[in-house]
């Protein structure tokens, strides 16, 4: 049996309820419960629910865990900005272009906060609009 007195690591947890057999999905971010599905239905995000889930996650065997995707960071974002700038895209439009690639309705606040998967999607979008982007990136 594991220690159950701690807050779960940030990420997504999936397991089967020991009482009902229903599938449970929970997500913790910055030490707080941010999503909770029980048998496919959204559940209230209460402190009690967070404590109960933390206990179950620490107690049960066979809990699947997927850590949160990490952002690409400032260096990779700066490289993406440089390439877009060399393509002639005004810097004010970099965030709107990235948002459009991701299907967002408003410009992003930071390219550094993109996940690796999101950054690849943005890069593919840039390359589809500006075929010379791959040459500039080399």
**Largest sheet descriptor:** 5 strands, antiparallel
Approximate strand percentage: 15-25%
Order of helices and strands: EEEEHEHHHH
> What is the average per-residue confidence, as pLDDT, rounded to a whole number?
91
Total strands: the figure is: 5
- Kindly name the structural category: alpha+beta
> For the CA atoms, what is the radius of gyration?
20 Å
* Overall tally of domains: 2
Number of helices: 5
Could you estimate the helical fraction of the residues in percent? 40-55%
Q: List low-pLDDT spans.
A: none
Ends apart, CA distance between termini? 52 Å
> What strand line-up does the widest sheet have?
4-3-2-1-5
Shape: elongated
Structure, described:
The chain has 138 residues and is α+β, with helices and mostly antiparallel strands. The chain has 2 domains: 11-67, no CATH class; 73-137. The chain has helices at 47-59, 73-86, 91-102, 116-129, 133-137, and strands at 11-16, 23-29, 32-38, 41-42, 64-67. The protein has a 5-stranded antiparallel β-sheet with strand order 4-3-2-1-5, with helices on one face.
Outline of this structure?
This protein is an alpha+beta fold. Helices cover about 40% and strands about 20% of the residues.
